[in-house]
């Protein structure tokens, strides 16, 4: 979650309500972030810190050999049931809770290698075998591991290495006979089989599997912009008194053209619903799978074989290299703070990591900039010996459409007008201090204060000019180079910035049964990040770009023809195909502090009664639109029907519950029961809902899944095509959602052997 846990929020809000009015006024009217932090921080009392410590204690982020054993045994159960994916994840949890160079971690690595072998991930299996051996895998179990290694090498087409492994294995049998007679016979039979495979592979060329993701990672900008690193030469940076900074096309841009490719300055993996330690229960470990179990905490790459931090069970990485880079740049500070950061939320975590990354730039310059916060009314200027052209402009462009005009250099640019993709650019994103509520600012200030005090109490001298890479196990504590309160102000600034400037990194996640022939997907939030260049794009409810992510890299492409001189626009979330104008404007106003005046909003404002609406109720007699407030009347010229809105809303809620029950039957394999329930819902829908209602789409989609599971591809395609009509109305013909539905339809046609329709879709 972005903000602190509900218990801490409620606690601080109560504390705020009990403050004397004079103190509330002082904090509410603070003119600078330094003043806000200065007046709020002393109010954090020892009892407040104790309450926060109790909350943090509910998260298990340390090493625990009992947890390692628990997860290994659960993984063994999954393995025996041939659920190798589930087994690999549970073994990974066991690895994370094991201490380095322990028998526990070696056993978990070895078991995970077996699961990976059955999943066909032979290269990764080999890496886990090496890890198991490095951490002291028991000598008596080594033959099994070496045999698995030989089988991997044979399958990968590396017969010479496999032959050497077999020689080592036979030598081990001869010198250290640690196996029983029956075990020895089983291994000998397997060994003979592997030898035959080696001989068959001897004369074949070696095979090196290719990484498919490289195809996409290698796509670069045709010509990079000289003034905006990470952006195409087809765009330029402009400033306007109302819009703030924004990007404009310098030539006609065709659909699909890559406009921005940018690595995040900072990103933090969204942990998902991390369970608190159950109170009063014997088992305190949870087998729930979260983002943190499946993705690298630095580069966000998906992995079934993460490498854990040596000091905590929370941080996991796709490789030793990623782990070392994270340790050198920020995790050496964050490692002991895992539980506190989970309690204080993602925004506080991103704020801390942003300031830690600032150390890798000119720290003296950064510190001076931060100190400037105290004397420049909240606006800090980059150091420069040369005059910089200044102009009147709004500090918007990162979600703000109208603000107080002030005279200042172009934020985020150097003295030559080049936009900097560094901490300077991050620092100049607007915190919108004046727009946040006093209660929210107080919550953020006390959360940052608690984090600073924990840093101080732990002796973590986090901010230093001596930033040479260190070995993970022998990192020297850096020397404090600035007042911690100065960095506290910086963290507070970042925490307030994030509401308007944070970018959700998303990924496509497969849903449904893994046995299903039809793949369904959904978009999920993977991480929260700050992108200096992406933040330059203003919002439109009907944008001319689309954004996608590969790990921490954002790519923005034109989704339609953009003429020279047109602004490059991005959607902040509220899209015209997903929300009505009133809902969109309310959301943008509450989160981004501006009233949207994009063309779709203006058109819809001028046509308040146009169209029946996608969630409209219909007359059960003549199917005409029902209109009104508490009592709805039929709009048909010859129909006098009327009905209570509350009655129709109650019917809709009951229908949604039935659809949910049918979907549960579908997930549990009770197909006939699900179909009968869905057909009943379908009949009920026709009596009072529009054919474009979202529930209609859900029913048709579920029926399509049910018939596909039964192998009735023709009926499945019929219902999926009806679902497509609803999706197109709600999301548009060129939407990502439409693409997902068309892909499902192509799978139905493919499985039904209708090749022409499959290709056409």
TrEMBL record:
Any Pfam family: zf-MYND
Domain MYND-type: 296-335
Localization per Swiss-Prot or TrEMBL: Cytoplasm; Nucleus
InterPro entries named in the record: SET-MYND_domain_protein (IPR052097), SET_dom (IPR001214), SET_dom_sf (IPR046341), SMYD4_SET (IPR044421), TPR-like_helical_dom_sf (IPR011990), Znf_MYND (IPR002893)
Any one of the GO CC terms: nucleus
Keywords from the UniProt entry: Cytoplasm, Metal-binding, Methyltransferase, Nucleus, S-adenosyl-L-methionine, Transferase, Zinc, Zinc-finger
Annotated catalysed reactions: L-lysyl-[protein] + S-adenosyl-L-methionine = N(6)-methyl-L-lysyl-[protein] + S-adenosyl-L-homocysteine + H(+)
GO terms for biological process, alphabetical: heart development; methylation
Span of domain SET: 233-573
Main function: Protein-lysine N-methyltransferase. Monomethylates PRMT5, modulating its transcriptional activity. May also act as a histone methyltransferase. Plays a critical role in cardiac development. Acts as a key epigenetic regulator of gene expression during cardiac development via its dual activities as a methyltransferase and negative regulator of HDAC1.
The protein's name in its UniProt record: Protein-lysine N-methyltransferase SMYD4
Phylogenetic placement of the source organism: Eukaryota, Metazoa, Chordata, Craniata, Vertebrata
């Amino acid at each position: 979650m972005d903000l602190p846990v509900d218990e801490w929020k409620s606690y601080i809000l109560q504390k705020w309500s009990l403050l004397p009015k004079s103190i509330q006024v002082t904090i509410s009217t603070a003119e600078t972030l330094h003043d806000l932090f200065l007046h709020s921080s002393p109010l954090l009392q020892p009892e407040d810190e104790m309450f926060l410590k109790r909350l943090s204690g509910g998260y298990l982020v340390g090493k625990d050999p009992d947890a390692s054993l628990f997860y290994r045994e659960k993984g063994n159960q999954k393995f025996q049931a041939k659920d190798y994916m589930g087994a690999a994840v549970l073994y990974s949890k066991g690895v994370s809770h094991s201490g380095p160079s322990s028998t526990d971690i070696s056993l978990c690595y070895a078991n995970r290698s077996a699961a990976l072998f059955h999943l066909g991930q032979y290269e990764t299996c080999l890496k886990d075998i090496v890890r198991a051996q490095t951490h002291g895998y028991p000598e008596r179990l080594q033959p099994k591991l070496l045999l698995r290694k030989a089988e991997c090498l044979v399958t990968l087409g590396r017969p010479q290495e496999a032959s050497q492994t077999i020689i080592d294995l036979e030598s081990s049998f001869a010198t250290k006979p640690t196996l029983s007679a029956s075990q020895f016979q089983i291994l000998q039979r397997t060994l003979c089989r592997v030898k035959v495979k080696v001989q068959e592979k001897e004369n074949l060329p070696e095979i090196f599997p290719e990484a498919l993701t490289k195809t996409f990672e290698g796509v670069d900008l045709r010509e990079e912009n000289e003034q905006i690193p990470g952006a195409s030469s087809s765009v330029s940076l402009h400033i306007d008194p109302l819009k703030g900074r924004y990007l404009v096309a310098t030539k006609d841009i065709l659909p699909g053209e890559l406009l921005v490719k940018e690595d995040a300055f900072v990103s933090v993996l969204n942990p998902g619903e991390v369970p608190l330690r159950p109170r009063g229960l014997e088992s305190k470990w949870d087998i729930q799978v979260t983002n943190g179990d499946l993705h690298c905490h630095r580069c966000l790459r998906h992995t079934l074989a993460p490498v854990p931090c040596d000091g905590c069970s929370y941080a996991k990485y796709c490789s030793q290299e990623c782990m070392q880079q994270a340790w050198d740049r920020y995790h050496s500070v964050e490692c002991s703070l895992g539980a506190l950061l989970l309690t204080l939320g993602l925004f506080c975590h991103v704020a801390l990591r942003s300031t830690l990354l600032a150390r890798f730039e000119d720290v003296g310059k950064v510190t001076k900039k931060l100190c400037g916060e105290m004397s420049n009314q909240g606006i800090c200027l980059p150091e420069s010996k040369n005059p910089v052209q200044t102009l009147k402009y709004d500090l918007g462009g990162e979600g703000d459409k109208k603000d107080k005009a002030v005279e200042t250099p172009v934020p985020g640019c150097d003295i030559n007008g080049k936009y900097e993709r560094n901490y300077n650019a991050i620092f100049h994103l607007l915190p919108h201090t004046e727009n946040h509520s006093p209660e929210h600012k107080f919550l953020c200030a006390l959360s940052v204060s608690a984090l600073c005090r924990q840093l101080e109490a732990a002796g973590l001298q986090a901010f230093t000019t001596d930033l040479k890479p260190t070995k993970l196990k022998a990192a020297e504590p850096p020397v404090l180079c600035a007042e911690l309160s100065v960095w506290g102000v910086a963290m507070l600034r970042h925490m307030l910035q994030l509401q308007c400037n944070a970018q959700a990194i998303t990924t496509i996640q497969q849903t449904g049964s893994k046995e299903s022939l039809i793949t369904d997907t959904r978009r999920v939030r993977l991480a929260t990040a700050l992108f200096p260049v992406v933040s330059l794009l203003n919002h439109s409810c009907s944008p001319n770009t689309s954004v996608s992510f590969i790990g921490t890299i954002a790519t923005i492409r034109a989704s339609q023809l953009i003429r020279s001189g047109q602004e490059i626009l991005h959607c902040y979330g509220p899209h015209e195909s997903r929300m009505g104008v009133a809902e969109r404007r309310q959301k943008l106003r509450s989160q981004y502090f501006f009233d949207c005046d994009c063309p779709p909003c203006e058109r819809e404002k001028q046509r308040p009664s146009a169209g029946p609406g996608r969630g409209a109720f219909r007359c059960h007699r003549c199917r005409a639109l029902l209109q009104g407030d508490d009592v709805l009347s039929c709009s048909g010229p010859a129909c006098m029907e009327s009905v209570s809105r509350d009655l129709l809303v109650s019917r809709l809620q009951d229908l949604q519950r039935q659809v949910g029950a049918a979907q549960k039957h579908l997930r549990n394999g009770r197909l006939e029961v699900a179909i009968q329930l869905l057909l009943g819902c379908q009949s009920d829908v026709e009596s009072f809902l529009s054919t474009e209602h979202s529930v209609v789409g859900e029913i048709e989609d579920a029926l399509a899944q049910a018939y596909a599971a039964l192998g009735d591809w023709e009926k499945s395609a019929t219902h999926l095509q009806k679902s497509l009509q609803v999706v197109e109305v709600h999301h548009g013909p060129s939407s990502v959602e439409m693409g997902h539905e068309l892909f499902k339809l192509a799978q139905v046609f493919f499985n039904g052997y209708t090749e022409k329709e499959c290709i056409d879709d």
